[in-house]
Design brief:
Oligomer: single chain
Shape: globular
Radius of gyration: 25 Å
Structural class: mainly beta
Largest sheet: 22 strands, antiparallel, barrel
Length: 746
């Protein structure tokens, strides 16, 4: 079995060590007498199996130190077992198991490509964490170091820092454990697709272990022209003091990724006033790629993370985590679009009108299509967290407090094509696919420097052994500078922001038994002005009082119940989220965003099940309903409309069954679906992407104690689905795909 997620967090982060999260369930349920002056410390385990019921796992975030069941917030978990069974290779693939998340695509130099997720309809561009620390930069992340993936839903300023409107994503890494183990996986199949990974964990002494993860991949996408990926990575780590009061771990990641950026399928309008849809819905070949040979994302990531934890006493644990990240990207994107009727062009003569009259229209290039860019992100973060559990008279307390300091610089230089890109038609894009253009001298530079100082505090007070209330806040001081203009000249745009703000949280938790948690939570977060200037350049030149922070609030009522001797977990939540002073797409500049006084609200329901129904039958299933609306806007036609990129219904199911598990004839069979209903891709709700449905399957056989063969099928119905959305384009997902893997474990 894979090392325990809870265990990895407890040994490497320290906030979950003995006296910390390891005792959280017992402490929270009142099994430790309220008058006890100290908390007994059990022996710390160093190896073990991850829980099938993910409610029993820890969060991996030192600011949320308890089990997921004991945390009053919706948290979806994609565990290691499912990552392996589905042969997950990227963060985006892992998140297919979490409904309520949509992916969007960037806009060349006007925006940003890489992982672009929206949680409950709100951007999570800066809300990807690894082991509780920010993963600086925007790039397509590979999953070769992942232990599990967790998604926190709802405004989460206290737990995640600035932004985190709809929530955030936290990846728990594979870190050293006191278990010598060697494993590897080789995968091949349709595309063509070839990938290999190694995971070597070596025990060095009674308290020291080292681990290294290695990955290499070369692949293409089924039924998609010219979409290729070449990537490799290595991640060594070492941990000292495992199983002792003082733990230190050091991890380094080097990752190289070179893949084709797909600008998507143009959206067309079947008639005047009709709702736009991707052209592939009207017979255009879904394999079409509208880009050129320059359309590559060439990324190098170097990341160093150190974690120190010390248990000062039976009731106090302090951690100090530090991360430095350097992301170097050279990237270019073609955004080919087909507009509808405008004030100066009748529908009859428009791109869409020509297409529906049987012609082959010439497409327009939007946003930053003529501007490749080189971008360097450098970020450093230091996070100190103290966790104290103590009693005062009849009351028990759980106090979390700390300091979070982060500094990031982003330097982006744009280059024009020379000569300019030739035109391309809707039906014959391959005329440009092999074209490699030269670039001219740099013509635009953007520089961003930001510093965040956060102080956070949260107190959980147990009024009764089964009833607790909590309240806390994060205070952030935000210091931001942005400059843009022509190279070698004085900046034409020069913006500075100095601001500070509070993000409070509060709630009540009732736990009548150790297997039941019912809660109400109120949480907030703030997106400071200027956060997206570099990647989504708002009109910084006319920066004014409109650029107030975006305020986000979330109310949630939920329940988490574990059944069948804790094997199976059930979750349910009702929530109401609001975003004030929202960023909105500019009406005059494609790819640009401006601050408004718009207000958006999303109400919804989330249901989930995780764990084992029987010892042989495993399931992970989630459903999300989102009722979204723009309730106030400077654009009158947007009021009452659905929020763009937000589906009403989304669901995912993955279930497996072990047949003759302990015999030589063992077989594991599995199947799953991923569903997302129709979404609008613009604020006026004039263009949409239809619903997605993917049927996936698994058959797996353990040949012997060390070898396992696995066959995965994806999108078995060969449906035309869309995995990346934008206002006038949508990326077509791969067709029916089959992969075969051979896994070795020693």
């Amino acid at each position: 079995m894979a090392p325990s997620t809870a265990l990895v967090a407890s040994l490497s982060l320290g906030a979950a060590m003995a006296g910390g999260a390891a005792l959280a369930p017992a402490f929270a349920q009142g099994t430790i007498p309220g008058a006890a002056p100290t908390i007994p410390v059990p022996e710390v385990a160093v190896t073990g199996a991850a829980p099938a019921n993910q409610l029993q796992a820890t969060t991996g975030n030192p600011r949320l130190p308890n089990s997921i069941q004991d945390t009053p917030q919706t948290i979806n978990v994609v565990p290691q077992e499912i990552l392996q069974q589905q042969t997950v290779t990227t963060l985006e693939q892992a998140l297919r198991n979490v409904p309520g998340i949509t992916s969007t695509i960037g806009e060349g130099n006007g925006g940003v490509s890489g992982d672009q997720f929206r949680i409950r309809g709100f951007s999570a561009q800066n809300d990807v964490l690894v082991d509780g620390l920010r993963d600086f930069g925007s790039y397509s992340r590979d999953a070769f170091t992942y232990e599990d993936v967790q998604v926190l839903k709802g405004a989460s300023g206290f737990a995640l820092g600035t932004s985190s409107i709809g929530g955030g994503i936290n990846v728990n890494s594979r870190l050293p454990t006191l278990e010598t183990r060697y494993s590897g996986v080789a995968t091949g199949g349709m595309g063509p697709f070839a990938r290999g990974t190694l995971d070597i964990n070596q025990r060095i002494s009674e308290t020291i272990a080292a681990r290294i993860n290695v990955m290499g991949q070369s692949s293409s996408v089924v039924d998609r022209d010219d979409i290729d990926t070449r990537r490799w990575g290595v991640a060594p780590s070492i941990a000292f003091g495992l199983g002792t009061p003082t733990t230190f771990s050091l991890e380094y990641l080097h990752y190289r990724d070179r893949h084709t950026i797909d600008g998507g399928m143009p959206i067309v309008f079947s008639g005047p006033g009709a709702t736009g849809r991707p052209a592939s819905e009207y017979g255009v070949r879904r394999a079409n790629f509208y880009g050129i040979d320059n359309d590559l994302d060439n990324v190098t990531v170097d990341r160093v993370t150190g974690r120190l934890s010390h248990r000062f006493s039976n009731w106090l644990t302090v951690t100090n985590d530090t991360r430095y990240t350097h992301v170097d990207r050279y990237t270019a994107l073609t955004a080919a679009t087909c507009g509808g009727q405008t004030a100066t062009v009748s529908y009859f003569n428009s791109c869409s009108g020509q297409f529906f009259r049987g012609l082959n229209p010439t497409l327009a290039y939007g946003g930053g299509s003529n501007a490749p860019y080189h971008q360097v992100n450098e970020g450093i973060q230091n996070l100190t967290t103290a966790l104290a559990r103590f009693t005062t008279g009849p009351f028990r307390h759980e106090l979390t407090a700390g300091v979070d300091i982060a500094h990031e610089t982003v330097d982006r230089t744009a280059y024009p094509y020379s000569p300019t890109r030739p035109s391309v038609t809707l039906l014959n894009p391959w005329t440009n696919n092999d074209l490699m253009l030269n670039t001219g001298a740099a013509n635009n530079v953007r520089n961003t420097e930001s510093t965040n100082l956060g102080l956070f505090l949260n107190e959980r007070l147990f009024l009764l052994p089964t009833l607790s209330v909590y309240g806390g806040f994060r205070w952030t001081n935000y210091d931001f500078d942005y400059k843009a203009g022509a190279p070698g000249l004085a900046p034409s745009q020069n913006v500075s922001v100095r601001d500070s703000f509070f993000d409070p949280r509060a709630g009540v938790v009732w736990e009548p038994t150790p297997s039941q948690t019912y809660y109400y939570s109120y949480s907030t977060s703030t997106t400071p002005p200027g956060t997206f200037f570099t990647t989504f350049p708002a009109d910084a030149g006319s920066f004014n009082s409109n650029f107030e922070p975006t305020r986000n609030t979330n109310h949630e009522i939920g329940a988490k119940i574990s059944l069948l001797d804790q094997r199976l977990g059930l979750t349910a939540a009702l929530f109401h989220s609001e975003r004030n002073n929202a960023l909105a797409p500019s009406d005059t500049a494609v790819g640009e965003f401006v601050a408004t006084n718009d207000r958006q609200r999303i109400r919804g329901v989330e249901l989930g099940i995780t764990g084992r129904i029987t010892p042989e039958w495993n399931i992970l299933a989630n459903y999300t309903y989102l009722d979204s609306k723009t309730t106030r806007s400077t654009t009158a036609t947007s009021v009452g409309r659905r929020v763009q990129y937000v589906p009403k219904h989304s669901a995912s199911v993955w279930t497996t069954y072990d047949i003759a598990r302990d015999t030589p004839w063992n077989v594991t069979v599995g199947a799953g679906i991923v569903y997302r209903s129709q979404v609008f891709v613009d604020t006026a709700n004039t263009a949409e992407v239809p619903d997605n449905f993917s049927l996936d399957a698994l058959i797996q056989h353990r040949i012997n104690q060390n070898l396992t063969v696995r066959v995965n099928g994806y999108n078995l119905t060969d449906r035309t689905n869309y995995e990346g959305l934008f206002g006038n384009r949508a990326v077509v997902a791969g067709g029916r795909t089959v992969l075969v893997s051979l896994a070795a474990d020693f």
